[in-house]
Amino acid sequence: MAVRHGVLSLVLLAVVLVVRVESGKNWALVVAGAKDYNNYFSQACSCHAYDTLRNNSIPKENIVYMSYDDVANDPENPVKGNIVNVAGGPNLYPGCKADYRKEEVTPEVFLKVLTGDKEGVKKLIGRDGKVIASGPDDHVFVYMIDHGGPGIFCFPGFVPLHNTDLNNAFKQMHREKRYKEMVVYLEACESGSMFEGILPKDIDIYAISSANAHESGWMCCYDTFRQVYVGSYFGNGWAYNTDTANLHKETLYQQYELMKKACNASGTVSHPTQYGNLSMNSEVLAQYQAKAEGYQPGVCVSTLEEVDNTLRSEFSFADIDLNNPAIDMVPIATAARRLIESRDLSGEKREELKAELRHMMLVKEKAESLTKDLVKAALFSPRGLTERDILAGKERVFNSECYKTALSLFSARCPGIDMGKYPFARRNLQAFINLCNHQPQTDVMNAILEVTEKYGICRAL
């Protein structure tokens, strides 16, 4: 009788384990943080990601897609209702319908969606919206792509999501048991700064950034017909790999190694970096990017070979590689390529492009000189630091409130250096972090007020 009881107990235990495994769901949150046609790559890579996850049998109701959604039907797009992720690639747009569009794509809405706060979403946008309604047995996958800066990931119009707010949301989800394990792929310049020294190792989250905390990400796939960059090394690398890999055998670490190789392809190197619970990188991709069984391979054909073949000619403007520009240099690189390659432009259009390039180079120059003057003004009581220390230092954000306030005040005081329109101006934000870490907040704010008053470009729109 005891034997029979033991066998019955094992059977019941097996049933319980099977039920638990089958009760777990896959959830995914995909975010394109940029708007405007020049930022085509952001919506193209995110659309590809959404399409891939759907092809891999994650139910539509379990995927939330946030995109400003203006690229497919932008007046500059020669094929309306069309988005490709590599020149000559398939149209991805019909399959990726955004759950949140236009002004709904904000850091506040994103955080409410991520943490499953339906009421919070409704208060923000005035309607019911889909959220990550995950539970303690579920796996969550997050992919985010846009421009960034030290300690920030940008939403449309240079509205920053700060690393402290993102990681506080992760900690909240862990406390509330909203996932079993979570994987985050974050693509932006200086994307490692969203996790470095701040993402805990003990909350079952594994993150990969497209670059380390102090370097740019890089573009690929310039489409001469669309006259825009349609892909990135990191985004194209993981999505095309997922389209073709056996997701039940390939691990997160193997995909990480592939992305490192892809991001080193052009010679302009960035370093995808791992954070959080690194023991999770031995798990297979199917745990996060597909249902655990029965997925169907994606429809996209891997084009990394074709992409690699475009990298060999030297093609530059103002020391910017026009084949593979840094993500934050995309506006300048796009205008330069259009000017260089378009033989059939009217004289008027060519002059417009030249004027646009001259203005962007002026903004870049003024942003750099303004930052130097701002640092000098803030260091009237230097506390042992030199201007060189502040301008060259690569510190993490230790005074988040000061940094947030400084960015907000600078944006309000100097709309002419629009960091949403001119992402290359964000290269100077490291100085704001360093100042806030060492100087009183009042000194930093007074320096911003003083210096922006002297620069005419701050008043230019």
From TrEMBL:
Residue intervals of the Legumain prodomain domain: 352-448
Family annotation (Pfam families): Legum_prodom, Peptidase_C13
Entry keywords, A to Z: Signal
Record field: transmembrane: none
Entry keyword annotation includes Signal: yes
CDD domains tied to this protein: legumain_C
Signal peptide extent: 1-23
Origin superkingdom: Eukaryota
InterPro entries documented for this protein: Legum_prodom (IPR048501), Legumain_prodom_sf (IPR046427), Peptidase_C13 (IPR001096)
Alphabetical list of PANTHER family matching this protein: HEMOGLOBINASE FAMILY MEMBER, LEGUMAIN
Family, per entry: Belongs to the peptidase C13 family.
Name the UniProt record assigns to this protein: Legumain
Phylogenetic lineage: Eukaryota, Metazoa, Spiralia, Lophotrochozoa, Mollusca
Record gene name: LOC101860968
